[in-house]
Amino acid sequence: MDETRYSQIFIDGTRKTKALDGFERDWPNILVSTDEIIEKVDRIWPELGLGPLIPSPSLRYKKQVHGKGAVAV
Questions:
Q1: What are the backbone angles phi and psi of residue 67, rounded to the nearest 5°?
Q2: Which among 32, 36, 19 has a CA at the least distance from the CA of 72?
Q3: Maximum alpha-carbon separation in the chain
């Protein structure tokens, strides 16, 4: 008898807000570095000895931030 078992997990990682989805509890905002931090890291990158510059992942997600707080409103 084959005892192979498979498990699956599904994670809904979409942002929820009361305004857009009627979601009633607070939902965390996306975390991104500030422009100042991105510029500083880019400036000192060669001194860190980490190889070629890797563009900040924050640049891809900045447009998805809602407001300035930790909660997406």
A1: 75, -165
A2: 19
A3: 61
Residue 49, phi-psi category: left (phi > 0), alpha (psi -120 to 50), beta (remainder): left
Q: Tell me: the pLDDT tens digits for 32-50?
A: 999 999 999 999 999 999 9
State the DSSP string of 11-66.
Answer: -------HHHH---S--BPPP---HHHHHHHHHHHHHHT-SS----THHHHGGG--
Give the separation between CA 25 and CA 22, rounded to whole angstroms.
Answer: 9
Interatomic CA distance for residues 52 and 28, integer angstroms: 32
Domain positions in the chain are 33-73
